[in-house]
Here is the input.
Amino acid sequence: MPLTCQTELRSMTARLSGEIDHHAARRLMRELDQAIESRCPRTLVLDLEGVSFMDSSGIAVLLRTRRRMLESGGSMEVVNVPPQAGKVLRAANLQKIVPISFL
Amino acid sequence: MKPINQVKLEFDSRSANEGFARSAAACFAAQLDPTLEELGDIKTAVSEAVTNAIVHAYPECIGRVQLRLRLFEDNTLELSVKDWGVGISDPRQAREPLFTTGGAERSGMGFTIMESFTDSLRLRSTPGKGTTVTMRKRLALRERGR
Ligand SMILES: Nc1ncnc2c1ncn2[C@@H]1O[C@H](COP(=O)(O)OP(=O)(O)OP(=O)(O)O)[C@@H](O)[C@H]1O
Ligand SMILES: [Mg+2]
Here is the structure.
């Protein structure tokens, strides 16, 4: 579950890839936490284009990361969500809480 | 209705087996010539049920999880996940959206997702004895022999 980050003018884009399930979520959360801590972005863009599978474990990662950004006065959005992950996010009505753009 | 094909798999409640279980279900479903979307639904539903068995049923130890896959004549696929763990005291409450005993690492959306990705879900649980989740999904009939 590799994570790559790019930061520009305090906006960080984090590209997630692979399968985000319970097995992968803990490490992903840790890597996201570390990236946010060291780069202090004001806006965080999570790019899910490379995500081949996601379940509710991914929802918890998105919600915790968003809470973290809000606590430091920042914001988060989710972009390039593939169909399978998109169906999971829609079933949980996450688009009502987080700005999401679906592929 | 009698199943026309069936497999049973048993594995340790280790998180590494989540990917194994959903891939196995997808491979079994392949004989129905499913669409990509149907395959995604099957994998997601199995992943949720198996993750629940791994996370909730055996909080302090490694236990057994069984995945049973059955196929019926009318193109219905049955996905059944069984554990011998702690069980659920109030199954109705467990199925409610956002209900979780898992804290910040969980979202409480597992059952909601399983229900919206399949046609039916039956939850049977006895506290102290274990839990079985059985889901059915009827796949679209496609022309064979393409
Ligand atoms: N196999 C099981 N054994 C014991 N308790 C379970 C089992 N499956 C579910 N539960 C209980 O039902 C609750 C709801 O399950 P559900 O899958 O909907 O949400 P979750 O697992 O808490 O969070 P999420 O699935 O979104 O990560 C769980 O928090 C747990 O208390
Ligand atoms: Mg769950």
The radius of gyration of chain B is 15 Å. Residues 55 and 114 of chain B are 16 Å apart (CA to CA). The beta strands of chain B are 3-12, 64-72, 76-83, 120-126, 130-138.
